[in-house]
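Q: Convert this sequence to structure tokens.
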Amino acid sequence: MTPTGAPPRGLVTTLRSEVADDLAAAAGHTLTLDDRRELARQLTFSRLQRHAGDSLAAGNPPLDAADEQRVAMAVLDALFGLGRLQALIDDEQIENIDVNGCDRVWVTYADGVKEFVEPIADSDAELVEMIRSAAARFGLSERRFDAAHPELDLHLPGGSRLSALMAVTARPVVSIRRHRYVDLTLEDLVAFGAMDDSTGDLLAAAVRSRKNIVVGGAMNSGKTTLVRALASAIPPRERIVTIEQAFELGLAAATERHPDLVALEARPANAEGEGAVSMAALVRRALRMNADRVIVGEVLGDEVLPMLNAMSQGRSGSMCTIHADSSQGIFHRLASYAVQAPERLPLESTNLLIAGAVNFVVFVEMADDSRSAGPVRRHAAATAHQQRFEALQRRRFVSSIREVVGAEGLHVISNEIFRCGPDGRVVRAAPLRVETLEDLVAAGFEPRGDTWAAPW
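A:
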């Protein structure tokens, strides 16, 4: 079923082909991407006028102005975006898009509602071709997506992250994570209720005093958003190098806040199996780039050792994110990645490295304030009882902060400075070490009360 207001697919397909040919004819001219898009827009409306004349001559009513605009947008999305997926990517209320084949498409909204929506392609082959085209056009270098290279991670224009699989699943699978907040500060997170003033002040001072911070949490818990906010406290004069599997942090876009920033992206091997650049190699390379701070978007494997070495060898104030199920679990995950690295460090040595490199771990999680799962809708035209409930809000918040104080055998020793209390509120727990508190105060932290420091 074609959704209400959707442009006629046949006309969109025809116009896309015609405008693509027109653009190819202009390929000899030097045009920027914006110039090409504007030229494509003009060509599309010119072609629409011709089709309107043909419709009148055949005795059919032409499209009205609103329909012409929808057709033109669909054509531009097909040429420069991700076709019918683009409208979902552009929807500011959508956080996740999950595609299990061309006609099994789910979207999750910011309020937790999950909705089954219209197909985004007429066939799985068309879906694969759409993703393959995006892989060739987006990112720093062309990436393959075929049976020989069935995995794809891609940074989309606008900051969304795309992950795709084919050939190892019955149908092609696409997952898109859309970041709703790209340029924000710790003050913004306080205003959103992700933390209180005291927590925000401590984290800001930790960044300014060049403490190394590891942010952990489950998928979609807000780890990347928190790192963006933490980075906002880095002085503009400092040189930052970010390292990611696929661009997602987007710090380079904030040129006034981070004028001296280099963003590095890992690269898979080419068709000949050559040219791969791993995250671990990029972390090592960053140490030769005069970086004041190194930020790893997400630690996923053996890059953890060069990252920890960077933190403990003069790159203080560095950060990374990692998947974990608790603040204590962050240490276990760091150690589990480290033991898989080629160096094969024993656990005791790994824990000593962690304790010498990491100053704070911050755990973020997502709470459903309604204490129930979000409702599921099947179509936008659903009945009234299926509409979103504005009271249902998923709250992402900092639930635990630990100060790392040392290592003892098989364990990293830490004090939980903030923790989540029985009522769900985050409260102060263990005191900071005196030396740490002095560093934070020197960086502008103003402790309230007399239980912030302990003599150990």
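The first helix runs from residue 9 to 25.
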